[in-house]
Every structure is written in C-alpha cells, then in structure tokens.
Amino acid sequence: QMGDTLSYVRFPNPDGFRYEFFAINFRDAPLHSVYLDSFYIDKYEVTNRQYKRFCDETNHPYPKNPHWDVNYFLGKSDYPVLFVDWYDAVAYARWVGKRLPTEAEWEKAARGTDCRFWPFGNRWILGAFNYYDRKEDTLSETGVIDGYTHTAPVGSFPRDRSPYGAMDMAGNLFEWCFEWYKEDYYKESPYRNPMGADTGRVKSKRGGSWLHHYSWGACIHRYYQNPKKAYDAVGFRCLLDINTYHKASP
Which residues are in the Sulfatase-modifying factor enzyme-like domain (predicted)? Predict the structure, then answer.
C-alpha cells in the first residue's frame, strides 16, 4: 500500500558521499561540497494512514487542522499528512525509529549523483509535480493543469521521482528538515555530515508544495518555518541511518 512504513529508498555507498551543492541566489549559496554517511529515506511523504496509527497508539494529538472536521482522515488515507508542526514530525519519526533528514541529506536524495536542478532532470516539465497552477486562482476543481487543487495521494506524479526513487520531492508538500535554519550556515558548515546551526528560531524545510509556484520546487532552494506552527503546505518524510538499520536487522 502507498505510504507503507517499509517503503525505503536506499543510499548504499558504504564510504559515504562526496556531494557538491549548487546555488543560484544568496540564500541558497554558496557552492560547496559535503560528505554524507549512507542512509535510507522514505520513498513517500508520511501519510494520513501512518500518522493516524501513530496518534491512536500513542495518544498524540491529531493534526492541528482548523478547517477539517472529525472526518479528517476519511477517504484520504494515502494523502500526505499536513498541519503537523516540527515537533509532531520529530515525535512520529522517533516512534518509528527514524529521524528527520538534514538539508544536505534531503537534497542528496532529491538530486542524485548528477546535481540536477529538479528531481526529474534539469528541465522543468509542465504538470510533472503538484504545484500551484496558474488556473487555480479560485481553487476550483476545473481548469487545473495537474489535476489537483490541493494535495494529492503520495506517488500520484510518476515524473516527480528522484534518481533514487524518492517520490514527490518537488511538489505536494514542503518537508520539515532536522536542523535550525541559518542563512549563511554553509559558509562555515563542516565537510562531513553537516547538521545545521546549534540554535535558532526557525527550522529548515525543503521541496515545493501544492500552494506555491512551480519554481519553489527546485531541489536547491532553502526555506524555513516556525517549528511550533503547523501549516497546510508542510509535511515530512523520515530517514533511517544505515548503522541503525543494520543494528535493528536480524
């Protein structure tokens, strides 16, 4: 089933990655290289089905959604969960024995080995992922380019697939990342496994969303959000360290 917790994308290089990042504006700058240890990352964004199970089994509050009624999950099991703040995402990740990806890990998962601009290549493709269509000004169900006025079930856009097989990294929802956001962090970040600033006021997020222009979905762009607030355009996926996986395996 879509969104199953066992759907991983594996990064098998036992020696880690030496990876060059690209930048086109100040916030995304500077161009730099990092080394990343190997990891697994969820193939899909965490779904309503998965998050509901977490809430039901741990008594964690349901998503903070002021617009939806008690039927929040009804008929939308395979849609990505939204209206979860950063702390909700961390709580879920810990419950399943994982964590949130760092910005560097997220970007590596999206761009592959050739440093592409989009998960699907260097050229934008009309309707390749779930973004805010020009015809959606009224959020009506007619006239949309990609077929969805809001979020879509995970994996609905086969072109929105990274070289490693991770889905929906350009659109659908922004995704929470592990670290505190600092605009000039990569001018001073360590070469090996950068984990972000030690302190801050906002957390990093990556990707694009159904609510934003398609250009926001480029792999390289950096964004941030208040970690205590939940949004209708932010979700998450989880990461599993290779060493953690091997320790847990029989």
Answer: 26-239
